[in-house]
Write a structure and sequence with these properties.
Layout: H1 4-13, E1 17-20, E2 27-30, E3 38-44, E4 47-57, H2 58-65, H3 74-87, E5 93-99, E6 103-113, H4 119-174
Antiparallel strand pairs: 1-2, 2-3, 3-4, 4-6, 5-6
Helix pairs in contact: 1-4, 2-3, 3-4
């Protein structure tokens, strides 16, 4: 069985700072250079779980991930993104759930088993969770850039449409009245 001290030493070897978790025997790992923490939690005598969780306000999630005209639920959209990102990393699972009120809980996790656990296997799993979280943050930043570009494009398009409408209105106001049709019957004197 792998002990907490071994996991702590192995986690530090990745450059993470490690502190005690909320429960006895749990650890909290902070990646080098900062970033979101990973909880290293004992599930039972033979199993550990590496967990990253964060809470996101539903309104902030809608603004961050959905275009203004998108009517889908942010929970569904972000859950799909998180699951696809997690699928690219061995043993990592991802999910998003609506929790109390208007908050979403985003979670990346992976299990490691104490029996026969090697430093390399543990570090590859921890690295996978860290990379999944990093991929989410990179995707969120790219999405923010896309939505900013969309807003800029929409503003430019609106300005062009307004300019064309203003020009059409000005032309209509200064145009001479239409000439009578050539085939129209002449009016009597």
């Amino acid at each position: 069985m792998t002990e907490t001290a071994a996991l702590e030493a192995w986690t530090r070897s990745l450059g993470c700072s490690v502190s005690q978790g909320e429960r006895p025997g749990d650890l909290s790992a902070m990646p080098p250079g900062g970033g979101p923490p990973i909880l290293i939690q004992r599930r039972n005598y033979e199993e550990w779980e590496l967990i990253h969780e964060r809470r996101i306000d539903v309104a902030a999630a809608r603004a961050a991930w959905l275009s203004p005209a998108d009517e889908r639920r942010p929970t569904d959209v972000i859950d799909g993104i998180v699951r696809r990102l997690a699928a690219g990393y061995p043993l990592v699972e991802g999910q998003v759930m609506l929790v109390v009120g208007d908050e979403l809980r985003l979670r990346f996790s992976a299990r490691v088993y104490g029996e026969g656990l090697t430093q390399q296997a543990y570090l590859l799993t921890l690295s996978s969770v860290l990379k999944a979280v990093q991929a989410y943050d990179l995707a969120a930043a790219a999405r923010a850039d896309d939505l900013a570009a969309l807003a800029e494009f929409q503003a430019e398009a609106d300005a062009v449409v307004k300019q064309a409408a203003d020009a059409a209105d000005a032309a209509a106001a200064t145009a001479p009245p239409p000439a009578p049709e050539a085939n129209a019957p002449a009016s009597a004197p």
